[in-house]
Design brief:
elongated; 70% helix; mainly alpha
């Protein structure tokens, strides 16, 4: 729904200009970015802008004779809010893992930190607390939805565990590399025990 709506507005020059003019009339100075399948980060930006402009988009699309009925559905809007928030969190992780001259231990730390965050968020959402999900927090609370989102986070955590099993296997080596003077020498290979001491 989001992609189709954004592409309807952005792909046709007239629609895009009319939408930008419509936003300016409402004193909004940022429009919709163009959605692309190539870049992961663009998806997060598109979702975020779509969510923020959902009222204006609904009004504009209604005027064009192509109403977005999903925007009137509170459950769909809640799902969109959750998607915006979790995509934002994933984008932060994605950006933290980019760049040159990074060590594998930095990637390990980023992934483990995110897994801990997922566990915290799952626990909080199961208690109907959306503290770290600002878009979701702005929506009316629905206990069934919160349980659904907690289950989705549990599934995401499980997916991270499966994809990064190699990190679990290398945990001791990472600990030795990260802080060699705090590690128990009896737990390292015999060939480096004396040097470590």
């Amino acid at each position: 729904v989001v992609i189709e709506t954004v592409n309807f507005i952005r792909a046709r020059g007239l629609n895009h200009r009319q939408f930008d003019a419509f936003l300016l009339e409402n004193d909004i100075h940022h429009g919709l970015p163009y959605h692309t399948d190539v870049r992961w980060l663009s998806r997060g930006a598109v979702l975020k802008h779509f969510y923020k402009l959902r009222t204006e988009i609904a009004e504009f699309m209604q005027g064009k004779g192509k109403p977005v009925v999903e925007l009137d559905d509170p459950e769909w809007t809640r799902d969109l809010a959750f998607l915006v928030d979790i995509t934002e969190h994933l984008n932060v992780l994605n950006v933290s893992m980019q760049g040159r001259n990074k060590l594998v231990t930095e990637y390990y730390d980023s992934v483990r930190t995110f897994q801990s965050k997922l566990e915290l968020w799952k626990t909080q959402l199961s208690k109907h607390n959306a503290a770290h999900f600002p878009c979701l927090k702005s929506q009316p609370v629905n206990h069934q939805s919160m349980d659904k989102y907690a289950n989705l986070l549990s599934g995401l955590r499980h997916e991270f565990d499966n994809r990064f099993t190699v990190f679990t296997e290398l945990e001791k080596e990472f600990a030795l590399f990260r802080s060699p003077f705090t590690i128990d020498t009896s737990e390292v290979p015999e060939a480096i025990q004396m040097e470590l001491i």
